[in-house]
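Thread: Newbie trying to understand structure tokens

Hi all, I'm a second-year student working on a class project, and my supervisor (Dr. K.) asked me to get a predicted structure for one chain before our next meeting. I've only ever worked with sequences, so writing a 3D structure as a token string is new to me. If someone could post the tokens and maybe explain what I'm looking at, I'd be very grateful. Here's the chain:
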Amino acid sequence: MNHYQKKTSTLAGKVRSPQYSRQLWSSFFLDLYTQDEILAWMDTDSAIGTPVTSYDILKDGKIKAIGQDRFPLSWVRDWDACTQKALGLTMPSDFMLFFPVFLWRSTVTNCRNFILKRFKTNNFEDAFSQFYIRGKLMSPIDVIMTYAWYLEHDKYEWHLDVNNDKDEINDRLPTGHKIKEEDTTAEVATGYHTGYYFDVDSIKRGYCLSHYVTGKKLPGCEPFYATSGVSLYNLGVTTTNGFCDTPKKQQYCKLLLARHYRYVKEEFMTAQTNPIDVTLMQKVENMAKDAKFSCARYRTCVQYFGKC
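---
Reply by user tm_fold:
Sure, no problem. This is what the structure looks like when written as tokens:
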């Protein structure tokens, strides 16, 4: 740890602060803080839009991995540059949009060991300082999920939104690791990165529908009971998401959402999943108020839901 603290002075010229660099470095050690086989990775600026069920995580022993083609964005190209430096492999997709990102704990371990071997060192800080390129942004999620795509592909079920550019993406990928048609099927994303898309209605819609399927009609939720659900799947994004960008695809997305809420109902009824309880939001707001701290940008629990 002290060795890394010494190294942070050499990272001062990075796009973010040395403290932020340390946070990125720490992401490669997530496996050391739990014995659970599956990790759920959330950014601090991400939000859950609908309850997460066991089916959203795992199918036939494989973890579901959802990504999206966002390579036209400059920061995603930065992430790819650092990923290539870390692994010698290009990103097949961006995995920094939909949260939680689920992954095997062993994938983090194996990715870290792969990087150590690639840089011929036993000290990860030394490797990190080499692949965290000066002047570039980096995404540890993309580094680790890119490792999984190439070296643990069969441990995951891939759902990559290629935005109808699969051939162009495949031109960047080496033989034997191209995106196949079965890797591009749609899947429900239960949360998203609010740093890119913030849609409060998606959160409320997920809250309302999760109770509605269990037979509870809540005040203020009536407008959402008649919605098609496609906007929930798209999380408010209608122009950059290729999963549901045609009438035929939208119909399939509606079927996926219907299936998702069947599982929500099943797990609520069998007590495998707890219903979303907005009274917890009120408790947090009260604690913040007592500390004289406020987030004026967002509506309070009472203002938004009518009552808590």
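A couple of things are worth pointing out once you decode it. Residues 11 and 23 are 12 Å apart (CA to CA). The first helix runs from residue 2 to 7. Feel free to ask follow-ups in this thread.
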